[in-house]
Amino acid sequence: MHDGRRTTNDGTIILKLSAMAAGGEALAREENGRVIFVPYAIAGETARVEISESRRGFTRGRLVEILEPSPHRITPRCPHFLPLPSPRASGEGDQGGVRCGGCQWQHISYAAQCEFKTQIVRDQFARVAKIPNAPVLPILPARNEWFYRNNMQYVVNENGALCLRAPDSHTLVPIRVCFIQDEPIGDMFKTLELDPESFDGVTLRAGENTNEKFIILESDDPETPEIETDQAVSIAFRSGDTTVPILGNEFLYEKIGARVFRISPNSFFQVNSAMAETLVAHVTEFLAPRADDILLDAYGGVGLFGLSLARNVLRVIEMEENPIALEDAQANAQDMDNVQFHVGRVETILPTLNSDITIAVIDPPRAGMERAALDALAAKKPRAIAYVSCDTATLARDVARFIEHGYRLERVQPVDLFPQTHHIECVTLLRFGE
Fold first, then answer.
1. Which helix (H) or strand (E) holds 155?
2. For residue 284, how many other CB atoms are within 10 A of its CB?
3. Which helix (H) or strand (E) element contains residue 377?
4. Span 105-112, mean pLDDT?
5. DSSP 3-state assignment of 270?
6. How far apart are CA 179 and CA 177, in angstroms?
7. Is the pLDDT of residue 254 over 80?
8. Within 10 Å of residue 395's Cβ, how many Cβ atoms?
């Protein structure tokens, strides 16, 4: 049976899944051109599927039964990752048939996850950027397939349990164990006891290389709570847009490579410390910085990339919209005199920047670069751009736009920061001219 479907007496259909899509689902293509996406199926499998959502240009099916399993299908490690979704789930937690939405690919062997992610990046460049043979390298596997996340955000339910949400749902799934949070977070997770009447959520953060632990308690009530702990942990309280320290240090510190970074509770930082070092190494390799270079670090955050390269260049210009993250970056650059900071949106600052830029690293949010920011950067004509992205579709879109400005796509290096999930990080090298 080739790709397509066969209808059964009970209204389900038999599908042969042909590929993995960027959102992590397997897909089947019907002869009429319709594409059906099936969560928790695997490319190469034959499965019984019930159509759960159908609209113009989009159809999704619910996996009912696996008829011919993939050789890459394995038993999920986590009890919250169910073998098959329940059609009539009513209770909370895995006992009620509700799957945790934190991971999507625990049912796929890790070697196959890496192969699928590499192919997804290639497919995205072919489909979105219209580059059928993009120079996409095989993904760099994570150093740790498990216990790698240094940041976990939980919701607190009415019983005080720490919960994650079910996929595409507001349903709360109480979590007994999590195999992707790193060891320091796991220690906090095991010992944390919360009053459900006092807190709505909690964020656990850790410095994996410094062994620092940080808890951010969240509530709609602005009154700062009284907290007791016998643990070596720092605690802050967040209500609305205000975050205040309660116990311990005001900041989390993490070491990446040779540098220690201060990270405020409201500042972004890569969730996989081990692979953040790999990102920095590849940005450095791709840009090949020279002593007379002026480096733009756009969407610079706490300074991970710009400050890691600052010793190798004449000057660094960091741009960051979040003023708190920029303050962290300034604190992290106290031992440097060649870093210039700009707070605000890149698309606002860059078009008016009165400076040459010879190389650039850009790490935009998932939505990619605003067109005004991209055009302004291309107008500066840096010889090399390292584009760090967590979204392959917007990366491919922006690469196509840079090519219109005279850049060529030299290399795309996927890096697996998110094992057991469909998410993919990439470092892409763009070079100006021939």
1. strand 151-156
2. 17
3. helix 371-380
4. 97
5. coil
6. 7
7. yes
8. 27
Architecture of the structural domain at 5-73: Beta Barrel (2.40)
In the chain, the amino acid numbered 167 is P
The amino acid occupying position 80 is H
Distance CA 169, CA 92 (A): 12
Q: What is the pLDDT confidence band of residue 274, given thresholds at 50, 70 and 90? A: very high
Taking 90 as the threshold, does the pLDDT of residue 58 lie above it? no
Instruction: Using a pLDDT cut of 90, give the percent of the chain over it.
Output: 82
CB-based contacts of 8: which residues, under 8 Å, 6+ apart? 14, 48
Nearest partner of 69 among 114, 123, 13, 109, judged by Cα: 109
Whether residue 95 is predicted with pLDDT greater than 50 in this model: the reply is no
CA distances in angstroms from 94 to 146, 152, 171, 175, listed in the order given: 20, 19, 12, 9
Q: Which numeric CATH code is attached to 113-143+272-432?
A: 3.40.50.150
Q: Looking at residue 266, what DSSP letter applies?
A: T
pLDDT digits (tens, 9 = 90+) for 212-232: 999 999 998 888 887 878 789
Q: Is the per-residue pLDDT at 385 higher than 70?
A: yes
238 bridge partner residues: 218, 243
